[in-house]
């Protein structure tokens, strides 16, 4: 193109079009994107019959703009196979491919549940004269896998959008997969960005390499100003990424002027060579959690509270400039922070106060705990002053936020007035209709399977957060190895919002529940032991109040089944009665709950339901569930999810080479048996409450035949080479004393998240539980066999193999 001594560029295209009558463009995406920046580009496009590109994806912002002016098409093929014939796209579908029906190709799913498909060719003799594949690889007679991955159009079958290459996939240390091409494609549309490359294989999170586009505007910017300028585009790319795949500000590395990026002749970035070129810069960014491109940390000027709020506010804004927070807003309630942004905030505070604090105290672990325990600008400012100057009374911002009794009073005050409708204490003998909040979590898919296996159940409405209910449920069930078909006619999937009135349901959806539901199962709760009690108010406790309100006004008079936790009474022995088993009844003693926001919030929930049952005459069953273990089918495709404290214990035991030998006896219940117990109790024909609380039942759901923890410790030790067993208190003390440099980043993050839980249970005498009511209500629980060492070993192997 153009003079042989000049490389192809957008400037050259612009110059040619100003001098020649050009009817069409056929160019690599990188050149089209450069041309689109030229002032006259879109005016010039008005004279084109079409713009054709190949060799990689075109930036969405550029393609969408050109599509409004002229036809935008893409040629698909390769040196090995030649061109694959595609149909001309309709307006608005420029970034989709539609193979000619005569082509011998299909799209095959590569990772079940991900919705990503590889284009596969099936060689045909009729194409020998026009396709190079038959000549380049004459031995290929069955299929040719292109390694190009596509996603289907959400509503138009036959249309496929390029997604990435099989060798582009980033596999994080957590085993999560990140598909970088869609995000890099969004970033490529920013006029300030010359190139963008996401990396992170084997790392805890992704990192973005950015090559600024040369020009006077960029040349005048500092690194902070440049990142500020491109941050809206990064936020746009993050919008469609999973939490583990989002780009953080502290994970952005700018290219070096003397290095640049490696590129193929067609202008696309060569991924692996460029990543190797910047290996040292990437490694440095993960060593201390910062990059030299990170915006400057402010300093704490004095010991006044207003100054501390300003300091904290500026650091928070630097991390999340797209969100405006009031000083009292809870970071987690406002969805301003997740585990990765909390880590970034902790790192910035540590660096910002490095000259003011004792180095032994100024650790990332200290700041992560401080952020989790004080999740607002105001609370964190007070905690910071106390840490630096030792002058603020920590009781003012204690680690559990709102007082439990105060939160309970607030929730009880929101209970509606009695509807006057007569309670229904018996379920119908057939045609039972169930509403399930939380079908896609750890336990939900198993509950759905077991309810479907009962012929009395006519239908289940599955209410979950987020869209794509049926597809997401099927993906989740397949991921857990559960044999259940989401297309079953008895299943209906509905999107809900926990904090919204009526759970965000439409009036028609609400009418269906109000007039036909027989049971509402509340099985959705944020499992995070680091969150304060106040963080559970706006969604979890609010949703429970909403379910109570629905049951109260529903003519169908549904019973409520609530999945609670033994954490609500784990301190029973210390706070109430050391030698008496925890009874199967609601305990009205706040100090009986473990000192975590999670346990305290479920303690509030139990007492809220007890108040609702007494006031509104709603039949309520509370299942106080102990530790949910992995499935008994772990050798047949099932797996134990990695959110539980035992998994954390295994990770940290492997990291430090020590295994605790004496935590507490193992009364865990495999998840596939918990779900059957839930089903048994949910579908009891007659609801029989207790004397004094006739509308409220409570069941302790733990293993009726526990075994000693030493059996588990032996199984875990057998999976960790060069490890030895120590007492639990010694294990916790050793873990508490480990500095960040002694652990991997993953283990340090896990330690920060779970250590308060271990410290709490180390100080508690774990109580015994009465199980008679639960065993009477569920034959599955009554007949449960002890967990054997073979199953324990399988679980441990699954946790420690990576």
UniProtKB/TrEMBL annotation:
Sorted UniProt keywords: Phosphopantetheine, Phosphoprotein
Transmembrane helix is among the record's keywords: no
Keyword Phosphoprotein attached: yes
Domain of life per record: Eukaryota
Gene3D superfamilies: NAD(P)-binding Rossmann-like Domain
N-terminal signal peptide: none
Span of domain Thioester reductase (TE): 438-677
Alphabetical list of PANTHER family matching this protein: ENZYME, PUTATIVE (JCVI)-RELATED, PHENYLACETATE-COENZYME A LIGASE
Protein's name according to its UniProt entry: Polyketide synthase HetM
Species for this entry: Penicillium subrubescens
């Amino acid at each position: 193109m153009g003079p042989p001594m000049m490389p192809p560029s957008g400037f050259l295209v612009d110059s040619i079009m100003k001098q020649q009558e050009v009817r069409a463009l056929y160019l690599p995406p990188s050149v089209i994107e450069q041309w689109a920046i030229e002032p006259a580009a879109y005016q010039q496009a008005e004279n084109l019959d079409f713009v054709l590109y190949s060799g990689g994806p075109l930036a969405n912002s550029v393609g969408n703009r050109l599509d409004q002016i002229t036809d935008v098409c893409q040629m698909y093929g390769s040196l090995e196979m030649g061109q694959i014939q595609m149909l001309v796209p309709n307006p608005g579908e420029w970034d989709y491919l539609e193979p000619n029906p005569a082509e011998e190709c299909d799209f095959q799913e590569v990772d079940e549940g991900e919705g990503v498909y590889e284009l596969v060719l099936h060689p045909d003799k009729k194409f020998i004269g026009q396709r190079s594949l038959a000549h380049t690889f004459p031995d290929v007679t069955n299929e040719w896998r292109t390694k190009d991955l596509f996603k289907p159009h959400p509503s138009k079958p036959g249309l496929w959008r390029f997604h990435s290459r099989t060798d582009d996939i980033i596999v994080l240390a957590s085993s999560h997969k990140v598909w970088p091409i869609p995000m890099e494609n969004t970033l490529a549309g920013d006029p300030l960005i010359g190139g963008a490359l996401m990396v992170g294989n084997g790392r805890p999170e992704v990192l973005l390499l950015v090559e600024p586009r040369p020009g006077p505007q960029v040349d005048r910017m500092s690194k902070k100003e440049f990142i500020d300028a491109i941050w809206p585009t990064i936020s746009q790319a993050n919008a469609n990424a999973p939490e583990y795949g989002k780009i953080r500000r502290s994970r952005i590395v700018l290219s070096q002027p003397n290095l640049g990026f490696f590129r193929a002749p067609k202008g696309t970035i060569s991924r692996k060579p460029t990543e190797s070129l910047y290996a040292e810069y990437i490694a440095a960014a993960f060593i201390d959690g910062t990059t030299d491109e990170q915006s400057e940390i402010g300093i704490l000027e004095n010991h006044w509270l207003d100054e501390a709020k300003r300091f904290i506010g500026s650091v928070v804004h630097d991390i999340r400039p797209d969100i405006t927070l009031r000083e009292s807003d809870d970071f987690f309630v406002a969805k301003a922070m997740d585990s990765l942004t909390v880590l970034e905030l902790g790192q910035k505070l540590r660096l910002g106060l490095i000259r003011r604090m004792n180095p032994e105290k100024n650790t990332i672990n200290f700041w992560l705990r401080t952020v989790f325990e004080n999740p607002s600008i105001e609370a964190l400012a007070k905690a910071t002053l106390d840490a630096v100057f030792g002058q603020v009374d920590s009781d003012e911002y204690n680690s559990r936020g709102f007082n439990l009794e105060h939160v309970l009073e607030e929730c009880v005050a929101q209970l509606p007035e009695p509807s006057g409708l007569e309670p229904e204490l018996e379920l119908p003998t057939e045609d039972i209709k169930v509403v399930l909040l939380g079908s896609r979590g750890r336990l939900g898919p198993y509950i759905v399977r077991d309810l479907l296996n009962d012929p009395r159940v006519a239908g289940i409405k599955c209410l979950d957060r987020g869209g794509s209910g049926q597809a997401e449920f099927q993906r989740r069930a397949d991921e857990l190895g559960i044999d259940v078909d989401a297309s079953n006619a008895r299943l209906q999937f509905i999107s809900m919002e926990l904090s919204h009135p009526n759970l965000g349901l439409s009036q028609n959806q609400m009418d269906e529940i109000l007039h036909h539901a027989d049971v509402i199962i509340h099985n959705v709760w944020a499992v995070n032991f680091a969150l304060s009690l106040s963080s559970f108010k706006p969604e979890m406790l609010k949703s429970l109040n909403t379910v109570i309100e629905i049951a109260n006004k529903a003519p169908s008079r549904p019973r409520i089944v609530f999945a609670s936790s033994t954490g609500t009474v784990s301190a029973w022995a210390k706070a109430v009665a050391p030698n008496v088993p925890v009874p199967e009844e609601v305990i009205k003693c706040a100090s009986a709950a473990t000192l975590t926001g999670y346990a305290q919030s479920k303690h509030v929930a139990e007492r809220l339901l007890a108040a609702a049952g007494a006031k509104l005459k709603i039949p309520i069953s509370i299942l106080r569930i102990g530790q949910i273990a992995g499935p008994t089918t772990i050798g047949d495709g099932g797996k134990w999810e990695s959110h539980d404290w035992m998994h954390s214990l295994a990770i940290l035991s492997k990291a430090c080479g020590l295994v605790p030998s004496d935590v507490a006896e193992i009364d865990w219940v495999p998840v596939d048996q918990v779900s059957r117990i839930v089903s048994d109790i949910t579908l009891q024909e007659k609801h029989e409450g207790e004397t004094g609380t006739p509308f409220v039942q409570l069941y302790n759901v733990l293993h009726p035949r526990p075994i000693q923890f030493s059996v588990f410790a032996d199984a875990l030790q057998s999976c960790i080479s060069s490890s030895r067993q120590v007492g639990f208190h010694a294990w916790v003390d050793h873990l508490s004393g480990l500095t960040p440099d002694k652990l991997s980043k993953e283990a340090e993050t896990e330690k920060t998240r779970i250590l308060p839980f271990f410290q709490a249970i180390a100080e508690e005498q774990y109580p015994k539980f009465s199980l008679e009511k639960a065993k009477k209500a569920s034959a599955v629980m009554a007949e449960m066999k002890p967990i054997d060492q073979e199953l324990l070993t399988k679980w441990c192997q699954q946790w420690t193999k990576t």
